[in-house]
Amino acid sequence: MIMKDTIVLGGSSGFHLAYRVSKLLGATLGDIEVKSFPDGETYIRIISDVKDKTVIYINSLQPSPNDKIIETLYTLETIRDLGASKVLAVIPYMAYARQDERFNPGEAVSISILSKLFRALDIDAIYTIDMHLHRIRDPTKLFGAKFHNLTGVRELAKYIKKNYSIENTVVIGPDEEAEQWAKIMAEELGGIEYTVLEKKRISAEEVIIETRDINVKDKNIIIVDDIISTGGTMVEAIKAIKKLGAKEIIATCIHPLLVNKAYYKLLKLEPKDLIGTDTVLSPISKVSVAPTIVEEIKKNL
Ligand code: R5P
What we know:
Bound molecules: ribose-5-phosphate
CATH class of the largest domain: Alpha Beta
Structural class: alpha/beta
Distance between the termini: 13 Å
Largest sheet: 6 strands, parallel
Number of helices: 9
């Protein structure tokens, strides 16, 4: 199917997905120029003609989240201003979702402010993948009814099914929040067992993981989390699970931010595989969320 009047545009952290989505949809891949002025300000120019077109704009808010936010807001507003008939924003990785509360007096509740900026735009829908939802259970309360939170876990599970035997396997979430992803992964793998560990965060880079009384001796393990950022959580989870005598460990996440030395620290533990999606491009982005995005967007075309 060729979608003549639909253009897919990718921002500086979304072009790879824009390409994949345009192929799956049979839509035109458009072009945008994004650059920085010498003083650090952002310059945007929509090169493709978007007038009277349905425009799907894809950009993740990582790396350099603050720059990506400005780029994304300016681009979306410009697309509408240039006369697009429908504007669909795809933000595969939503930044600041972990700062969803005033943990200490005087702090900014960043995700609440960011959602207000998105709500101020005249766009028809926003799609994101596995936004970090801990205390906020319903993101439409922040972003409004046009907000769709999709999951990349099904694509991760498909990849695992295709490449590995899942016999004698338990799915583990490294903390209680990760139960939502462990549950989906276990279901997608045919209803296998799943459980979660307990995590205490000491600092931005340091966590303590407790395994409770789980029995994973001689089992194969798939760990699933939403984000690997500094790698602290995943590293401690792998170490704890190894101590319990597990056999092989596959570590997976949706958003492989892999900041600082996360990739190195994880490789040193020699998991059987390290798998992330392409919401953020990284050396472990082996699974594309493009099919998930396309399936949902088709309902809005
Ligand atoms: C936190 O609650 C998230 O679900 C992840 O576990 C966390 O963001 C991972 O961060 P890091 O890799 O820095 O431990």
